[in-house]
Amino acid sequence: MQKAVSSVAVAVAAVRRPTRRCHLPALPGDEVLVKVNELMSIEIQITYSYYSLPFCRPDNLTESAPTLWQLLHGDRQQRSPYQFEMRVPKKCQIVCRVLVGEKEAKELMEKMEDEYRVNMALDNLPLSIPIRRIDKDDFFYQHGYHIGEEHKRYFIHNHLSFLVRYKRDIDTSASTIVAYEVKPFSVKHQYEAQWNGANSRLSTCDANANRFILSSDSPPEIEVGEEIIFTYDVNFEESDIKWASRWDAYLSMTDDQARWFSIVNSPVTLIGLSVAMAMTMLRSLHRDIFRYSKLETQNEAQVETGWKLVHGDVFRPPSNPVLLCAYAGSGVQLFGLRNVVLLTWVLMGMLAGYTSSRLYKMFKSGSEWKHITMATAIQFPGFTFVIFAILNTLLQDENSSATVPPTTMCALVLLWSGIAPPLVFLGGYLGYKRPAIEPPVEINKTPRKIPKQAWYISPVFSILIGSIFPFTIVFIELFFGLIFIWYHQFYRGFGFLLITLVLLLVACAEISVAFCYYQLRSGNYKWWWRSFLTPGCSAVYLFLYATFFFFAKLSIVKPVSVMFYFGYMLVVSYAFFLLTGTIGFFSCFFFTRFIYSQRAFG
User: What InterPro entries does UniProt report for this protein, alphabetically (predicted)?
Assistant: First the structure.
């Protein structure tokens, strides 16, 4: 894809110390490895390899061994043609000269129109451009630099001015890198006499003459047959930033004030909900249990109304118990997983199988526990894999670097089929061998007729209203999460994420229990599915907000990118549905067992 007339490595010292590949302190003159990463765009959301464009290549092009997350994320780090030596400044270093053909010019212009940016890393620190805020006296950092500029004409950024900030140890003179910045330029370089590779003398940028002149009067417009000379310079600047704090500047871009407002507002909402429950539901519940326990005969008990009369039907198995058990098991697996690695998801399969089989045995719907464990093992991973496989095929057609190689895809399938289902089946077997969970009251042989329900107790209305509360808890954090993912920004505040998770758990439990109680008071004992759907359908609001975010905040127009966005957001929404629904289901489960296990129902 690239036709280079000459690719010349920058000369380094004859006696070279070992390359520093991590955050080990480096002595003056030590080589520090610069890596290039994927090309990304917030308008297209499809990543490409750095060397898919006609950029300079190093003599020994190597790729770091990617982790599983990097393979799935399309993060491919490769050696760059830029060579740095710690605390050794360089001026106007020539990398190579490239002749732009018709194919190369078309690819570059397309990437510029789509506003693609180049990502690099130095000592695992991402390359960034500091941009001063208009309303504040500080900077925010743009991840990477744009390939070029497009203003009716196309100009490529062929000169990079790097700034590396370092923290020096006074005792050893060793240094650690604490900041990695760049300023890109478009320069139409001119060389004197003949082209002589790295030894060529540039009239626009001459390091040999100890002068550095950049002129943007005639930047290198991309035209077929034109040559582009890539150059760079490196400056080192000592800093007071400690190595442990070097990420603080990158992570200060988010609006913590809005996040704190959300965190403070959510407990206020929950406190109001808790007070309302304490004033109405709990008070009424305590009074009903006390009065019912004073009744001396069953005939007297029959005079009572509300949730007490449905005690013989409240634990009647729900319709389609297999799917409900599978959902509950998958939700338990997700709740145990949270934000941990993929391998933990596989290992949590035993808990999912155990939960679903124990619930299924309690319903006494049959003895085929293998069916329920199979449904638990495949329903969420199968859905996710189908979406992932479709998107991966589309990315492969686009030659994206985010494409998962066939070998990795096979490894994922083997990891799932060889480990996950056996663990789910093992958990299901252990759960089914345990004694069945017996209801605290005897179930009537004949189902009681459900009285006509008020409109505000109807399933559709209660689910739509109840599911709003969990969504309001995660609304602000969801916004920052979408910014982090689709704007390729830096994410900070995992403490916010933990607090939001705790608040979400409380909100799902309270709203599900409250609606369950009022449903039982109306004489409707079919609470199983509604307890799951009331908080679980907050995933619908999540997906609707993701749709709003797509049209309001993003400028994606390419069909493949649109499918990529909505495909992944559909998986996220489905996982949120399982997680919140499971929390609500088990909250109602323990609540109903508690109220019906009182002495009057013994």
Answer: EMP70
| CB of 585 closer than 8 Å to CB of 511 | no
The four Cα atoms 508, 511, 512, 518 give a dihedral, to 10 degrees, of 180
- pLDDT of 438 reads 87
223 touches 105 (CB < 8 A): yes
State both tokens at 272. Answer: 């109001």
Other CB atoms within 10 A of residue 480 CB: 21
With CA atoms as reference, report the closest residue to 452 among 522, 369, 383: 522
**What DSSP assignment string belongs to 285-315?**
HHHHHHHHHH--SHHHHHH--GGGGGGGTTT
The tokens describing 227, both together, are 């040559």
Measured distance CA(583)–CA(385) in Å, rounded? 24
Alpha carbons 585 and 529: distance in angstroms, whole number: 8
C-alpha 142/C-alpha 253 separation (Å) is: 10
Q: Give the pLDDT score at 348.
A: 81
Residue 162 bridge partners (DSSP): 182, 234
Residue 196: C-alpha distances to residues 9, 23, 97, 225 (Å): 13, 36, 10, 19
- Is residue 22 a contact partner of residue 80, using CB atoms and an 8 Å limit? no
What pLDDT band is residue 70 in, cutting at 50, 70 and 90?
Answer: low
DSSP symbol at 600: G
Other C-beta atoms within 10 Å of 71: how many?
19
CA 537: distance to chain centroid?
21
The pLDDT-based confidence of 172 (bands split at 50, 70, 90) is confident
Report the C-alpha gap between 289 and 387 in whole angstroms: 49
Count, residues in the chain = 602
DSSP state of 193: S
Check: CB of residue 250 under 8 Å from CB of residue 241. Answer: no
Asked if residue 580 lies in contact with residue 502, where contact means CB atoms within 8 angstroms, the answer is: no
- Residue 136 has a pLDDT of 66
- Element housing 229 (H / E): strand 227-238
Nearest to 176 by CA among 186, 185, 167, 164: 167
- In sign, the C-alpha dihedral spanning 155, 146, 75, 346 is negative
Lowest mean per-residue pLDDT among 76-80, 291-295, 415-419, 579-583: 291-295
Residue type present at position 513:
V
Question: Would the CA dihedral through 463, 465, 469, 470 be positive or negative?
Answer: positive
DSSP strand pairing (175-185 vs 148-150): unpaired
How far is the CA of 72 from the CAs of 68, 404, 503, 575, in angstroms? 6, 6, 30, 18
- What's the alpha-carbon Rg for the chain, to the nearest Å? 31
Report the mean per-residue pLDDT for the chain: 81
Sign, Cα dihedral of 15, 20, 26, 29: positive
CA distances from 209 to 94, 189, 202, 204 (A): 14, 15, 9, 11
Write out the DSSP string of 113-168: HTT-EEEEEETTEE-EEEEE-SSSSSEEEEESEESEEESSSEEE--EEEEEEEEEE
pLDDT value of residue 118: 94
